[in-house]
Write a structure and sequence with these properties.
mainly alpha; Glutathione S-transferase Yfyf (Class Pi), Chain A, domain 2; 8 helices; 4 strands
Length: 209
């Protein structure tokens, strides 16, 4: 299998970490959606990442769809419960986290792909508020679990992976201080200390002020 995309994307990174934790081998193509757009479109007409090319050359797109397929292959080792309240809670946390990442990306694009005189500050303010509200909810969720306990129980699962990838991405691109979301920052630090997280960490560029 081939995983396309750079690990500075939290969406690509959460797929890579999940595959490694599930023991699924893959070839990584460190392609940029800017520099390598044409090559990516050979597999994904949207030219987006992550894209996972299966052994039969079928391509799966969007991290949520890829992770769902990976869990299907993993069976009892899946990184998200198959049903019930814990699955709903896991999906809720994942959705809030990826939503925060989306709002962060919107701010990055506005500041880095448009001339400064054309920045729309009300839009930036709205995205920042949505991002902050999401992080506050995730911080409260992390604070609610017992020390050293993962979000859905005694083992690391997909919500832990996604929250850590997203928070690291936002902290680096938005220059967040850990004290602002202490429980979320501490939870992320526990994840980032694991070898599989260290192996996939690629710092993002510093956005324009």
């Amino acid at each position: 299998m081939i995983l396309i995309g750079m690990f500075d994307s939290p969406f690509v990174r959460r797929v890579a970490i999940s595959m490694q934790l599930l023991g699924i081998d893959f070839e990584h193509r460190n392609w940029s959606v800017g520099r390598d757009q044409a090559a990516i479109r050979d597999y994904n007409p949207l030219g987006r990442v992550p894209t996972l090319v299966l052994e039969d050359s079928e391509a799966l797109v969007e991290s949520s769809a890829i992770l769902d397929w990976l869990d299907e292959q993993a069976g009892a080792q899946a990184l998200l419960p198959r049903s019930g309240p814990l699955r709903r809670e896991g999906l809720r946390l994942i959705s809030i986290a990826t939503g925060a990442a989306d709002k962060t990306v919107a701010q990055i694009y506005e500041r880095n792909f448009r001339p400064e005189e054309k920045w729309h500050q009300p839009w930036l303010d709205r995205c920042r508020e949505q991002m902050d509200n999401a992080l506050a909810l995730l911080d409260a969720s992390c604070a609610a679990v017992a020390p050293k306990q993962w979000l859905l129980g005694p083992s690391l699962q997909q919500p832990d992976i996604t929250l850590a990838c997203v928070y690291t991405f936002i902290a680096e691109t938005m220059a967040l201080e850990a004290r602002r979301y202490p429980a979320l920052a501490a939870h992320t630090a526990c994840c980032e200390a694991l070898p599989v997280f260290r192996a996939t960490h690629v710092p993002f560029f510093t956005p324009k002020p």
